[in-house]
Amino acid sequence: MLEESNSTLIQYPTQFTQNIVPKQIHSHNDYWRDVPLLTALSLGVGSVEADVWFIDNTLFIGHELAALTPARTLDSLYIQPLISILARQNPVTAFTANQTTPNGVFDMSGTTSFQLLICMKTDGDSTLPPVLKALEPLRQLGYLTTFTNGTLIPSAITAVGTGNTPLEADGIMALSPRDLFFDAPLIDLDDPNVAYNVTISPLASTDYEPAIGWPGIGNISEAQMGNLTKFINDAHTRGIKARFWDTPGWPIQARHAVWELLLNAGADWLNADDLEAASQF
Ligand SMILES: *[C@@H]1O[C@H](CO)[C@@H](O)[C@H](O)[C@H]1NC(C)=O
Ligand SMILES: *[C@@H]1O[C@H](CO)[C@@H](O)[C@H](O)[C@H]1NC(C)=O
Ligand SMILES: *[C@@H]1O[C@H](CO)[C@@H](O)[C@H](O)[C@H]1NC(C)=O
Ligand SMILES: *[C@@H]1O[C@H](CO)[C@@H](O)[C@H](O)[C@H]1NC(C)=O
Ligand SMILES: *[C@@H]1O[C@H](CO)[C@@H](O)[C@H](O)[C@H]1NC(C)=O
Ligand SMILES: CC(=O)N[C@H]1CO[C@H](CO)[C@@H](O)[C@@H]1O
Asked: Is the CB of 167 under 6 A from ligand 4?
């Protein structure tokens, strides 16, 4: 059996994520999982969130200061693992000689871009430059979705800044080429001051409770349904994907009712803490 499983006939280069169906699930506080990034990938989760703190010239990962350790950095937990996975998904062989765009992390769907949401916890203006620098190894390998010369070129990883990420002045809007994007405020997509579009924001998000409010129990009101439809339409009109965070987690029945409501209304990402439950939903 061991011998059989080692046969060259049943092995192939990109099987690290073999048979995993990619899903539009966002892993909230991904660094809390058993294994950051890999637990999510094993369940087909298409987007992960990493909270970064820029302290002593290093980007540490964690929910709060008390949770930080020297070893857990943006580079060690996300950038290097992604590079090693993408190296496996992009073997250099005679068969790939003419391939111009890299495969993504999912073997089953090479063109699916994996979303890396970087939530800046420390001051945005001082955290942005080191985050851009941390992305350099992915950038060098051509793995980052990039807006350049008026064209959006999709690639294996789409990096999006959230939290304190600055938009204007020297923020995301000033980047050219741009390979870090901006998580737009979903309820302000009609803001006349910023004409959000996919060249700035592939994603727009909002806190579910103040925006919609239906707790997942009883009937949703017409006004709540109207708001939900409006926000999703505002995003889709601009080609932007919609995400609602902090949806009810309990009771499970309410959590599922809200997930069902969101998916039926056209929300693009399910924001989840329990990835296993969301991946089986
Ligand atoms: C698998 O096969 C290769 C080449 O035949 C051999 O070098 C390697 O030791 C084998 N690995 C296992 C775990 O049997
Ligand atoms: C790559 O392109 C060359 C030149 O057009 C062609 O001869 C070769 O068959 C192609 N290889 C593959 C794997 O498609
Ligand atoms: C973008 O335009 C500049 C100036 O015209 C050119 O040097 C550069 O190669 C272009 N980049 C891409 C990716 O096409
Ligand atoms: C996208 O939005 C930015 C910021 O509002 C704007 O500068 C840019 O012209 C827009 N691009 C397109 C193609 O609409
Ligand atoms: C909820 O909606 C159903 C179906 O429209 C209706 O029968 C029921 O009375 C409503 N419940 C409440 C508490 O309004
Ligand atoms: C958060 C939000 O925008 N809520 C809106 C829901 O819809 C009602 C009725 O149109 C508005 O008054 C609220 O502002």
From this structure: no
